[in-house]
């Protein structure tokens, strides 16, 4: 079997919130299990490999979003990779550009997204900034908590073809409507940084399971369990200050 | 340029002076009360009280002085200390210079320092990025040093370009009455802002941090960064517009700075690291522009040892720890290679002054610590522990700062984010 390709797309544009950590986490979790893999970082101007197992997009500024959409649209390999069954995991600004449209700048210019998720994003009434806690229902029906840090001005509305990734317990999420993130086929979008896959190993392994087509045994990482317990207790203690 | 002190005197000037005097007096009392209560130097509360009583105090206190301001994301405090030392060395009376040496660089911090030295005719001011625009408007500085721009506290400052735009707008607005700008030519956002000045002195600092300079601030195209080779220095340019790395007036190479006449100045600083040699080159260029000689400037800068406690050695029981401050990924990239001890202590917090989102830990190359032991401390020690787990770096977790440092081994290096850095200074007997 050929190595699983983890492709981090445009780190220099969509990498200001440490979201490259999601790629590092996926690669390391494969390495620890002895599963052959490659981590590939693609910058604008370089071709996106069309044969990835997982594509990753992270958070960034408005101008970077426009630049990334332009480059990915002209490259087209991301679309080919998705048609071939790859998994897409997109965070924050990366999540927004995967939708139908989003807005940028002080005048809320509407920009066409990649159309990989049936969501639209518009400027929200206030910026969503702070620790977030959501409840994600896993494929087997069990609930796993997702902890992270959200920081976004855009509010996202889901269309008929997309389903929410999780339900918000603390924080804003998509738009304050109780939902967070979106799932459509093998594309997943979500707001939290942290990076989110470092804080949420169940979600990381879900992404890997989708790419590998098989379930994975959990890894025993007490450091991560302690961090999760810390952050979940902190956010439930109500120390979240919205918009601060 | 019209000197500030030639402005005509208005009838309300006397009243304004009385009010300022009251504000300074009240500020002093508040600072004294704060000191007596054991709550630090009182510098911050002094400035807050002053500005509450006289909202115009900031502008009034800036008038009648020659001003040089220093701003940028990283290195402001050290560069301000270096420039102050450089300028003082060229004067027979060093008391002519006032500076906010404690790093309090917002309106009240600057007002506090100036209010305590009404007779100092030269002010060298560390200036927060957000205050630069008003300082240019109200203070008419002769000189502005712009060091670098990188992401910092993204929970508060969402777009770093907005700050660059505010500098640029203020420089355009000031026109020929604006400052001469000494600017780091390696940083595209700095260059974009600084080229709006009527005159700019460019310093090729050799900075290699390009993670926050992907897009052209002028036209939005992806910038081309040509990395350094043995034969040539790193360069950047925009492929779509005229923004490119300017021809430098000063070039830093190793421990030397070459000026535009070809003269080589040897730095020989006490503050460590490549980053501080870049800061010193900017301070040298600024001191020369300000009218001093390079020899005096170098002599002055060589006496700077631990600006506002940075690089100072603190004591915790039998442990001596050298304290390094790193506030963001660019700062960590410079500080990590300086921390050579084993174990090394890393202190992380997420208070407002540190940035509440610690995701940036994943933008720092902690992998370089492999083979050494890291003590993770501070309120967000566990986040660092997870980062180090994935980096394959051996570590232990001790969230309490005192416990993490006390009686560990003879000498240690400790890198901390802002809040634990200040706490460690106090715990270690430095402040
Ligand atoms: Zn351009």
Which features would summarize this protein structure in a list?
heterodimer, A: 244 residues, alpha/beta, Rossmann fold, four-stranded antiparallel β-sheet, 29% helix, 32% strand, disordered C terminus, B: 431 residues, Protein-Tyrosine Phosphatase, Chain A, 2 domains, nine-stranded mixed β-sheet, 17% strand, binds zinc ion
What does this protein look like?
The complex is a heterodimer of chains A (244) and B (431). The longest helix of chain A has 15 residues, at 222-236. Chain A has one domain (4-237): Rossmann fold. Chain A has helices at 20-32, 62-75, 77-83, 93-97, 196-199, 201-212, 222-236, and strands at residues 4-9, 37-42, 54-57, 87-91, 101-104, 109-112, 119-137, 143-158, 166-170, 179-180, 182-184, 187-190. In chain A, 29% of the residues lie in helices and 32% in strands. In chain A, α1 crosses α6 (201-212). Chain B is an alpha/beta fold and 431 residues long. Chain B has two domains: 56-307, 3-Layer(aba) Sandwich (UDP-N-acetylmuramoyl-L-alanine:D-glutamate ligase); 312-427, Protein-Tyrosine Phosphatase, Chain A. Helices cover 35% and strands 17% of the residues of chain B. A nine-stranded mixed β-sheet of chain B has the order 2-3-1-4-5-6-9-10-11, with helices on both faces. Chain B has a six-stranded mixed β-sheet with strand order 12-13-17-14-15-16, with helices on both faces. In chain B, α6 (132-139) packs parallel to α7 and α9 runs antiparallel to α10 (294-301).
Q: Nutshell version of this structure?
A:
The complex is a heterodimer of chains A (244) and B (431). Chain A has 244 residues and is α/β, with parallel strands linked by helices. Chain A contains 7 helices and 12 strands.
Low-confidence stretches of chain A: 240-244
Oligomer: heterodimer
Largest beta-sheet details of chain A: 6 strands, mixed
Q: Helix share of residues of chain B?
A: 25-40%
The unreliable regions of chain B are 1-8
Q: What's the story with the biggest beta sheet of chain B?
A: 9 strands, mixed
C-alpha geometry of chain A: globular
Q: Could you tell me how far the N terminus lies from the C terminus of chain A, measured between alpha carbons in angstroms?
A: 49 Å
CATH evolutionary superfamily of the largest domain in chain B? Mur-like, catalytic domain
Principal-axes shape call of chain B:
globular
Helix content of chain A: 25-40%
Residue fraction in strands of chain A: 25-35%
What's the CATH C level of chain A? Alpha Beta
Strand arrangement within the widest β-sheet of chain A reads: 2-1-3-4-12-11
Largest interface: A-B, 38 and 31 residues
- Under CATH, the topology of the largest domain in chain B is which? UDP-N-acetylmuramoyl-L-alanine:D-glutamate ligase
């Amino acid at each position: 079997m050929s190595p699983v390709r983890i492709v981090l797309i445009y780190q220099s544009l969509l990498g200001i919130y440490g979201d490259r950590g999601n790629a590092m986490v996926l690669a390391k979790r494969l390495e620890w299990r002895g599963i052959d893999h490659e981590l590939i970082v693609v910058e604008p101007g370089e071709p996106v490999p069309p044969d990835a197992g997982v594509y990753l997009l992270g958070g960034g500024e408005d101008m970077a979003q426009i630049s990334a959409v332009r480059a990915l649209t002209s490259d087209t390999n991301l679309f080919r990779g998705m048609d071939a069954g790859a998994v897409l995991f997109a965070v924050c600004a990366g999540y927004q550009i995967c939708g139908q449209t989003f807005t940028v700048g002080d005048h809320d210019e509407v920009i066409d997204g990649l159309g990989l998720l049936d969501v639209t994003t518009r400027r929200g009434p206030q910026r969503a900034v702070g620790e977030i806690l959501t409840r994600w229902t896993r494929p087997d029906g069990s609930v796993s908590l997702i902890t992270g840090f959200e920081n976004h001005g855009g509010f996202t509305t889901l269309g008929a073809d997309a389903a929410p990734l999780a339900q918000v317990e603390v924080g804003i999420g998509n738009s304050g409507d109780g939902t967070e993130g979106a799932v459509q086929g093998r594309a997943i979008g979500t707001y939290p940084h942290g990076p989110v896959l470092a804080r949420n190993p169940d979600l990381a392994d879900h992404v890997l399971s989708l790419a590998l087509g098989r379930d994975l045994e959990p890894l025993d990482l007490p450091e991560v369990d302690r961090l999760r317990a810390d952050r979940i207790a902190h956010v439930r203690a109500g120390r979240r200050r919205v918009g601060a | 340029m019209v000197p500030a002190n030639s402005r005509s005197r208005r009838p309300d000037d006397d009243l304004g002076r009385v009010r300022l005097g009251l504000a300074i007096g009240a500020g002093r009392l508040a600072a004294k009360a704060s000191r007596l209560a054991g709550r630090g130097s009182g510098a911050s509360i002094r400035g807050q009280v002053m500005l509450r009583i006289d909202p115009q105090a900031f502008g009034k206190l800036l008038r009648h002085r020659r001003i040089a301001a220093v701003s940028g994301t990283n290195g402001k405090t050290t560069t301000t200390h270096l420039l102050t030392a450089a300028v003082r060395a060229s004067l027979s009376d060093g008391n002519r210079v006032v500076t906010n040496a404690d790093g309090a660089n917002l309106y009240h911090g600057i007002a506090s320092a100036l209010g305590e030295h009404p007779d100092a005719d030269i002010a060298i001011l560390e200036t927060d990025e957000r205050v630069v625009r008003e300082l240019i408007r109200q203070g008419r500085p002769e000189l502005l040093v712009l060091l670098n721009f990188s992401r910092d506290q993204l929970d508060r400052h969402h777009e770093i370009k907005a700050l660059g735009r505010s500098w640029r707008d203020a420089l355009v607005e000031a026109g020929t009455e604006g400052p001469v700008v000494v600017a780091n030519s390696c940083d595209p956002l700095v260059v974009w802002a600084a080229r709006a000045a009527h005159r700019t002195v460019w310093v090729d600092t050799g900075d290699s941090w390009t993670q926050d300079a992907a897009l052209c601030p002028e036209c939005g195209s992806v910038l081309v960064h040509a990395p350094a080779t043995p034969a040539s220095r790193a360069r950047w340019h925009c492929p779509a517009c005229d923004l490119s790395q300017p021809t430098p007036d000063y070039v830093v190479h190793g421990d030397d700075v070459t000026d535009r006449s070809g003269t080589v100045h040897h730095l020989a600083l006490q503050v460590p690291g490549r980053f501080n040699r870049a800061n010193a080159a900017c301070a040298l260029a600024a001191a020369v522009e300000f009218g001093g000689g390079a020899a005096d400037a170098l002599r002055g800068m060589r006496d700077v040892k631990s600006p506002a406690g940075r690089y100072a050695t603190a004591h915790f029981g039998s442990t001596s720890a050298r304290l390094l401050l790193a506030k963001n990924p660019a700062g960590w990239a410079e500080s990590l290679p300086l921390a050579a001890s084993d174990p090394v202590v890393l202190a992380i917090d997420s208070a407002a002054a540190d940035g509440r989102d610690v995701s940036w830990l994943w933008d720092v190359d902690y992998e370089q610590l492999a083979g050494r032991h890291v003590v993770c401390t501070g309120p967000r020690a566990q986040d660092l522990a997870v980062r180090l787990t994935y980096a394959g770096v051996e570590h232990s977790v001790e969230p309490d700062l005192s416990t993490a440092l006390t009686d560990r081994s003879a000498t240690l290096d400790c890198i901390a984010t802002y809040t634990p850095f200040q706490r460690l200074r106090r715990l270690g007997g430095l402040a």
